[in-house]
Each structure stands twice: as C-alpha cells, then as structure tokens.
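Hello everyone,

My group is preparing for a crystallization screen and wants a predicted model to guide construct design. The compound we'll soak is flavin mononucleotide. Before spending weeks at the bench, it would help to have a computed complex in hand. I've included the protein sequence and the ligand's SMILES below. Output in structure-token form would be ideal because that's what our pipeline reads.
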Amino acid sequence: MPDFYKIARKVLFSLKPETAHHLTLSGANFAHRLGLLTLLTGKPPASQPVEVMGLTFPNRIGLAAGMDKSGRAVAAFGALGFGHVEIGTITPRAQPGNPQPRLFRLREHQAIINRMGFNNPGMTAVLANLEKSRQGYSGIVGINLGKNFDTPNENAIDDYLSGFRQAYAAADYIAINLSSPNTKGLRDLQAADTTRGLITALQEQRKKLAASHQGKIVPIAIKIAPDLSDQHIADLAQVFNQTHIDAVIATNTTIDRQAVAGHAHADEAGGLSGRPVTDRSTEVIRQLRQNLTADIPIIGVGGIFSAEDAQNKLDAGATLVQIYTGLIYQGPSLIHDILKLN
Ligand SMILES: Cc1cc2nc3c(=O)[nH]c(=O)nc-3n(C[C@H](O)[C@H](O)[C@H](O)COP(=O)(O)O)c2cc1C
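Reply:
Good plan to model first. Here are the tokens for the complex, ready for your pipeline.
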C-alpha cells in the first residue's frame, strides 16, 4: 500500500504547525469514526503484551504527552497501534497557553521547538472528552498532570493533588510533569527534596483515594528533563528508589540548542524535540537504569524516528517507549515498524 502519510505530510507541512496539529487530530478522529483510519494506515501488526507498573500494556509503544492534550482522540490513536496514550498535560483550571506563534518546525533537523505553555481546557472538560474518546479503545490511558501557570511554585503541590484527585478514577496511570520548560519555575520542582515532598504527598493522597475507589491503586510516573547533570540524575534516582515511585518517564524536550545552532528558529524560546534529543534522552535512560532499582521501570521518549531508535532506548533500560516528533515526521508507519520489534 502506498504510504498515504507521505502525501498527507506535504499538505500538513504547507500549513502553520499549529493548524496542521489541529487538522491532524480532527482528521484522525473523523477517519476513525468512519472506520477509515486503519484502511489508510494499514492494520497494526500483532504484538506481545507487557506488564509494567502492575498494568498490562498491549505493546511497548505509546503516544507521548502533548499530542492529545485535551483527551479528544484516544481511540483514534489506539487504532493507529499505540498500546498506551498519555493525554495532557492537564492543569486543574483551563488556560490558553502562550501567545502564538508557539510551535516551530526545524525540518532540516527533523525537530520541533514548542512553547505551548500547557494550553488545555482544564481537568473537568478533559475528563468529559476522555469518556467519549476512549470508547472502543482497550489500551492504557495515562493522564499527565501539570500546574497552572499562575500558581506559584510554593503552591504547586496543591495543583498536582487537585489534578490527581480528579483524574484518579479515569486514569490507568498518572504522569507528573516536572519537566516542561514552558511554565516558569516548573523544572525547579525537580530539586531532589522538592520532588521527594511531592511524591510523598501524592502517595499519601493515593492511600485515601484507593479506599474510596474499591482499592484501585493508580501508578505514579514522574517525567523528567534531559537537561539534568549526572549528579542530579543520580540524586533523583535515589529519591525514586526511596519513595518506590512506580515509573520514570525520560525525557521531556531540551532547552539545549547546540544541535540546531544557526537555524532561523534556533533561538525561539521553548523545548526542542525530535532528532536532536535522540542520543541525550537515551543517555539519561542509561544513567537512570544504572541508578534505579530493577523494579522501577523507565518509559523512554525523545527523538525516536525508527525501530532501531526504539530498540536503543529498550537496550539502554527502558521497558516502554513513547513517540511524538517522530510521528509528525514519519507518520503512523513508524508505530508499525516499532511494533514489529516484538
Ligand atoms: C508540540 C509539543 C507539545 C508537547 N507538550 C507536552 C506536554 O504537554 N506535556 C509533556 O509532558 N510533554 C510534552 N511534550 C514533550 C513530549 O511528550 C516528549 O517528551 C518530547 O517531545 C520528546 O519526544 P519526541 O522527540 O518524540 O517528541 C510536547 C512535545 C511537543 C513537540
């Protein structure tokens, strides 16, 4: 079958990145509802389920946070072959995000810079979207939480606790995003003692929530940045070991611009994703694996453009992988290529 995405990409790349994003999501949803999506992309190859965080994932590949921020297209992404879809980042209250333009393609580098700033309709609206959009989907749903931009860091914990409470019933796992570069001060929450306090507070709340949710224990994963020193990674790993966190997601986008120096968009503020982060995120996974106890799984994300890139992350110590920028550049055939690894 001809790769329909090669044609679709020509059209999408002729549009402004954010317009292309909305069109892709609506188009995928629409095609899925008509039962056309798998006709266009082909049926995903069969794969082996894998147990992670006490959950059964149908396969090792998931959609990274930020693509389906408002939980509108979960079953459509499932039909493309994703075994898990991480929606969000979601903040307790709706917020518009940063002014546009805030999304830039760096085609020569197979990269994106974004400073979206957690644009999302707020937790209540997202949960309503999710209820509809997950119908017919049998994979795993992760809900990625952030704080509102106008919540001061000293109160950040309240936003995470509020998101956690609200998302608890709907989530298979909850991801705590401490690593977006686009919310002022967010990455400071990665200071080891601050992270420890946050995890402990969430775990305390989880005990109470489990009691009111038929004993359901929702796993907590922490998402970290690629821009951490070796020492900082080791310190965080110690916190993760001591608090028995359920998983670590590595990594978010980078603020480093070395790899794209000289590009017209290189100096745009925001997080850089795609090819330029492939090796760095794999290195962070490797270092985490060396420092984490064997029972803490790593979800590897950052610059996966081929099955080989995914395999490198698995070899470095990840159990699951996620993609975002690679999907935009390569299309859904990338998901199928990775599924064939099994
Ligand atoms: C446009 C865009 C928006 C993103 N939004 C989020 C987000 O809301 N929350 C989050 O945790 N990560 C977000 N990310 C980061 C991705 O989930 C991923 O960690 C990162 O892009 C590296 O993977 P990639 O190279 O495959 O894109 C975003 C990435 C992009 C490109």
